[in-house]
Amino acid sequence: MRRSLIVAALTALLLAAGAQTASAASRTWRPCSKAATKAAAERAGLPARMDADARLRSIFGDDAPSSQLTSIGRSLCADFDGDGDLDRLALYRCCTVSSPAPFAILRKKGASYAIAYSRLNDAVITIRTAGRDLVEREPKFARTDANCCPSRVRERRIHWTGTGFATRVRIRAAPAGARTIAAPAAAASAARPAIIAKPIPFPARRKREMAAYARRHYGIDSHRLRRPRVIVEHYTVNDSVQATFNTFAPDVADPELRELPGVCAHFVVARDGRIFQFVALSLMCRHTVGLNHTSVGIEHVGRSDGDVIGNARQLRASLRLTTWLRCRYEIGTGNVIGHSESLSSPYHRERVARLRMQTHGDLKKASMDVYRRKLRARPCS
Fold first, then answer.
1. What is the CB-side half-sphere exposure of residue 380 using CA atoms within 13 A?
2. 264-274: b or e for each residue (b if 16 or more CB lie within 10 Å)?
């Protein structure tokens, strides 16, 4: 009898310990079905919240963010609040390493889910588990870092307190494995069109002048173009590629603003559809006040919007070039603009007060609406 009581007591203790272990395990985040998590996110209204987010809308432009952010990159499950229901984390992936990677923690109540915590604008590298906590890591780029290789990371530890989520953030040097970020397997791409190299002179002096210009106008001490977020379309107000080259090649102060370096654009599209590259994509060009620090400039030989939109060969070539660029740099169609739309860009930035409202009239919104509609018919693969 005494022995049976001891055995029963030991059994009860083991069962209690096992129950505690199972309970603890259920509150620890672990991988789970991406399809089920995507369905839970939709039931919680996460796509609608992404579409309502002003920052995401400015990045994706005319495209609804939820139409681009359709893939769940990581799905984790845990009963984080201990109520017996399985809660979920959904991390979305889109396009390139510099794209936003929205994520949300979805709390289950009965058959429904609610968003308990979310961050929609971070370019997340990873979300890892740390017991019951989650640790989000996102790149933090210094001004001189290449797009692949942030020198630092921001780590955000996310902890359930019993009544809500608390976070702790620290910035630290990027560990060796995070210094080079591989692009996602499904990175957006488009075929590179045929491009004829026709470089204008861009010697060391012009680079120094470009760096000085960037310092005055943008507070950036560099001539380098890094991670462009905008493509600006122009027309040349002349009749040939050579005339455009002759305008851009001399490094002389422009007659309008009287600044150095001389004006330029990265590409020019001829009337017959040939594409010429004047300037490397790694260099800033002076083509649009307020946006030179973050934009690629494309000129089109012509004297009016109608010359460009009405020339089928030139327009097809322009759309091929712009599609390749926007897919390469993950630029939403809404951030492909005409020069006349520069002041409405969310990326517009100008430190010189007298130039904050300066723009030109080429490629007006009505023309660019036609252009962007045709561009949306050429999605990234």
1. 22
2. bbbbbbbbebb
pLDDT tens column, 65-79:
888 788 898 999 999
What would the mean pLDDT of 21-48 be, rounded to a whole number?
A: 84
Residue 254 tokens read as 């422009």
Each residue of 271-295: pLDDT tens digit?
999 999 999 999 999 999 999 999 9
What does the alpha-carbon distance between residue 94 and residue 251 come to, in Å, rounded to a whole number? Answer: 40
- Residue 44's SS3 state is coil
232: which residues sit within 8 A by CB, 6+ positions away? 287, 288, 291, 295, 296, 297, 298, 337, 338, 339, 342
Query: Where are the domains positioned within the chain?
Result: 27-178, 196-376
Q: At 103, which helix (H) or strand (E)?
A: strand 103-109
Between helices 365-376 and 312-329, what is the axis angle to 10°? 70
The Cα 312–Cα 271 span in angstroms is: 9
pLDDT tier for residue 185 given thresholds of 50, 70 and 90: very low
Q: Would you list the DSSP string of 234-284?
A: EE-SSS-HHHHHHHHSS----TTT--SS----SEEE-TTS-EEE-S-TTB-
Cβ neighbour number for residue 252 with a 10 Å cutoff: 11
Please give the Cα distance from 14 to 208 (Å, whole number).
74
Which one, of 201, 152, 210, 199, lies nearest residue 178 by Cα?
152
Residues 6+ apart with CB under 8 A from 281: 225, 228, 266, 296
Whose structure tokens read 């309970």?
A: 23
The whole-angstrom distance between residue 75's C-alpha and the CA centroid of its chain comes to 21
Place of tokens 């009898």: 1
Q: What is the phi/psi pair of residue 125, to 5°?
A: -85, -55
Q: CATH topology for 196-376?
A: Lysozyme-like (3.40.80)
Confidence of residue 81 (pLDDT cuts 50, 70, 90): very high
Q: Are 69 and 188 within 8 A, CB to CB? A: no
pTM beyond 0.70: the answer is: no
Q: What is the pLDDT of residue 186?
A: 42
